């Protein structure tokens, strides 16, 4: 078990006393990692991860420390965090020659915040402010809800750099409070245990945000992940535009009612289904906050769809936004199978001319695989589906194309003809 390990100091790098502007830990000697021949190309092309098998040699490395990444010809490629235990032992922080210190993080945070200027100007107050590699801060996720930050640390390297990023984070994003909610399963493989603690101010249990003009409670402490899924903001707004007054909408995997409320705001009659009582409880509160009405049902969405009698009144819209289910190539088939089942069992409950919104939130299942799965399910039902639209994660989850894994969320808008 590792508890708040610090960067280890191994000498001051020959600096004069007067040069010291930052804590001594900044001067830690960096290890070196040499890549195998040809493996430098992807790093030069801005891909941030190195796998174990791509490493030729290491020197002076320490799990959780910083390393200089080098080509086989000794060409410096960048500075990275290193952890031999992790699936991707090397995660590149920068390809420039720069110090990894508070100023580095200040620059990164300032750039990330300006990328979100449009969202902020549009009045959204729940925003993903940092999205790990996609914002060039590998291992660091920050969501901000009405000024309250919720940070997740996903790598030992980033954990060790915390003394450099906490203060700039509070400052650049103007945070009233900052909660670390590092309780995700992925930390175990980095040798990190779960940690939930206040890093600044008094983090509230929940915060109220505005999204597309609607009010939502983000249950920061008790809810899933950081409390609210900002990634579907764009798709929710799109749904509100498409739904007509009086439409019957079934929101499966509703969580706190993101799609449900946007539909209700368009005048629809909505049923939100989720397996988690807290989610539905919050969805109900969210409806009241906006003077809207929705029905909620605590159920396993798979079982609910399968057991719903065919003679039940059909829906104009069915939203299917299941959890990731699979994060690796090895388990991709289970996600495909889950999506097939959902679509197969949803189709009989859709009116002719009605639409399905099928979302997958795993890089392992791209637009092509998701479409193929929907095609198979529709074929097995003897239905033809028309692809009306495709939505992706909203812009606070940036998707640099040099790093394909950043693009994980897609929504296919399929109309039954
Ligand atoms: N659509 C939501 C986000 C969905 S997150 C939004 O717009 O915010 C996935 C949700 O699926 C979670 O709320 C989780 O509780 C729920 N869930 C997981 N497995 C489920 C199942 N088998 N049946 C119903 N809900 C489930």
β-sheet strand percentage: 25-35%
In this entry the ligands are: S-adenosyl-L-homocysteine
Could you give the order of strands across the largest sheet?
Answer: 16-15-14-17-18-20-19
Distance between the termini: 56 Å
Summarize the structure.
By secondary structure, the chain is of the alpha/beta class.
Overview of the molecule:
The chain is an alpha/beta fold and 417 residues long. The chain contains 11 helices and 20 strands. It has helices spanning 40-44, 102-115, 117-121, 156-160, 162-172, 233-242, 258-265, 277-289, 301-307, 332-346, 367-381; strands at residues 31-35, 49-50, 55-59, 66-70, 76-82, 90-94, 126-131, 140-145, 148-153, 177-182, 195-200, 207-211, 214-218, 248-252, 269-274, 295-298, 315-320, 350-361, 385-392, 409-416. The strands form 4 sheets. A 7-stranded mixed sheet has the order 16-15-14-17-18-20-19, with helices on both faces. A 6-stranded mixed sheet has the order 2-6-5-4-1-3. Helix 8 links the parallel strand 15 (269-274) and strand 16. The longest helix has 15 residues, at 332-346. S-adenosyl-L-homocysteine binds at residues 224, 229, 232, 253-256, 258-259, 274-276, 279, 300-302, 321, 323.
């Amino acid at each position: 078990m590792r508890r708040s390990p610090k960067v280890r100091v191994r000498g001051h790098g020959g600096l004069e006393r007067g040069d010291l502007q930052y804590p001594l830990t900044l001067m830690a000697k960096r290890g070196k990692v040499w890549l195998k021949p040809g493996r430098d190309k992807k790093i030069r092309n801005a891909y941030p991860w190195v796998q174990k098998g791509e490493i030729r040699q290491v020197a002076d490395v320490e799990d959780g420390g910083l390393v200089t990444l080098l080509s086989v010809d000794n060409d410096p490629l960048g500075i990275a965090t290193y952890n031999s235990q992790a699936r991707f032992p090397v995660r590149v922080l920068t390809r420039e020659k720069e110090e990894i210190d508070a100023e580095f993080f200040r620059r990164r945070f300032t750039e990330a915040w300006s990328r979100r200027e449009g969202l902020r100007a549009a009045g959204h107050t729940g925003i993903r402010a940092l999205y790990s590699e996609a914002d060039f801060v590998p291992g660091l996720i920050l969501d901000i809800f009405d000024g309250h930050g919720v940070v997740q640390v996903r790598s030992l390297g980033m954990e060790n750099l915390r003394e450099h990023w906490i203060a700039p984070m509070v400052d650049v994003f103007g945070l009233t409070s900052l909660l670390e909610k590092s309780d995700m399963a992925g930390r175990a493989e980095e040798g990190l245990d779960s940690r939930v603690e206040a890093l600044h101010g008094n983090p509230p249990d929940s915060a109220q945000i505005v999204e597309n003009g609607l009010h939502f409670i983000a249950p920061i402490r008790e809810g899933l992940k950081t409390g609210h899924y900002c990634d579907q903001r764009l798709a929710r707004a799109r749904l509100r535009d498409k739904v007509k007054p009086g439409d019957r909408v079934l929101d499966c995997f509703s969580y706190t009612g993101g799609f449900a409320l946007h539909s209700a705001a368009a005048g629809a009659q909505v049923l939100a289904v989720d397996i988690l009582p807290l989610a539905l409880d919050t969805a109900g509160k969210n409806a009241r906050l906006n003077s809207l009405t929705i029905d909620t049902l605590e159920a396993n969405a798979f079982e609910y769809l399968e057991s719903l009698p065919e003679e039940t009144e059909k829906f104009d819209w069915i939203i299917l936004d299941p959890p990731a289910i699979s994060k690796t190539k090895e388990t991709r088939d289970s996600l495909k199978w889950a999506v097939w089942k959902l679509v197969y069992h949803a189709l009989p409950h859709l009116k002719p001319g009605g639409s399905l919104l099928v979302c997958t939130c795993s890089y392992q299942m791209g637009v092509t695989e998701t479409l193929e799965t929907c095609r198979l399910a529709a074929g097995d039902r003897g239905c033809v589906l028309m692809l009306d639209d495709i939505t992706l994660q909203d812009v606070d989850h940036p998707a640099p194309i040099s790093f394909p894994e950043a693009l994980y969320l897609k929504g296919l808008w399929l109309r039954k003809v």
